[in-house]
Amino acid sequence: MPTNQLEPKIFACSQSVELAEKIAKEYGSPLGEVTVTHFSDGEFQPAFEESIRGRRIFIIGSTFPTADNLMEMLLMIDAAKRASARHVTAVMPYFGWARQDRKDKPRVAIGAKLVANLLQAAGATRIMTMDLHADQIQGFFEKPVDHLFASTIFLPYVKSLKLDNLMIASPDMGGSKRAYAYSKYLDCDVVICYKQRKKANVISHMELIGEVTGKHVILVDDMIDTGGTLTKAADLMMEKGALSVRAICTHPILSGTAIERIENSSLVELIVSDTIPLKRESSKIKVVSCAPLFADVMHKVQSNTSISGQFLM
Questions:
Q1: Which of 95, 130, 213, 272 has its CA 20 to 30 A from that of 249?
Q2: Which residue out of 9, 22, 195, 215 is catalytically annotated?
Q3: Tens digit of pLDDT for each residue in 1-49?
């Protein structure tokens, strides 16, 4: 078989094995074999246990903290390049460090740009991710970036709820573009929460811009970390007369006591994807898998066909 017709191979970083197995199953290809050797001081070394010479390979791994997850992705990309892979696509369902996309105060790093440089220096020839914290991060790369939208998987679920008097909400001003995109597809109005922070993860003040009386509200955001913003927004909306409040958050970071905060909040349901594995299950958390979306786009990348049909936003 000519080199350019070799089937691609799919590999998983340690932190995303469960998601990678789902993606590989949807793609119709088994996961490739990787071993990771751990040293006593915490250093580790991944190795491909099969030939990848001349092939396109997809390395699947979300880069949520700890930094070991990012480091494993970088080492696997480097190993693939040195093993003569033809194309190396870093499939990062959750692109970590993306909240550091600009200098918002003096003497700080732009972490997202640094990560982009590291991925390219390691040898990635393409990046595939979903719901970046800031769209402009795509411009940090000199390589192609497939930026997928989680709306593709969430909107069918929202429509299946068959909610009357639906209202889409953004938990902050920065997410208004995402909220308007959802509202356009669902043909409903938008409200926005205006918040002020004392420091990271600590909200000092929140106000609601818009009317939610008699509405079933769905908050949309790219991630949920401590859950403070969403739960405060949900409580505020119920106080303002909303019938119910749900939330859609693509990346379930859910650090600290976030799950307990969700369970004790006014939220009826938190809808997330499986870009990051849940620390534990909860009756209030609904997981919608992103595996079919990534598998489909990977097929299209391999066959050099357009992926524009995947964008509902």
A1: 213
A2: 195
A3: 444 468 999 999 999 999 999 999 999 999 999 999 999 999 999 999 9
Running DSSP on this structure, what letter comes out for residue 69?
Answer: H
- pLDDT at 6 (0 to 100): 86
- Report domain extents, the chain: 3-149+291-306, 151-288
Predicted confidence band of residue 194 (pLDDT cuts 50, 70, 90):
confident
CATH architecture, domain defined by 3-149+291-306: 3-Layer(aba) Sandwich (3.40)
Q: Which structure tokens are listed for 293?
A: 């979306």
Whether the Cβ atoms of residue 215 and residue 96 lie closer than 8 Å to each other? no
**What does pTM read for this prediction?**
0.93
- Which option is the CATH number for 151-288: 3.90.79.10, 3.40.50.1010, 3.40.50.2020, 1.10.357.10? 3.40.50.2020
Angle between helices 67-82 and 111-122 (to 10 degrees): 20
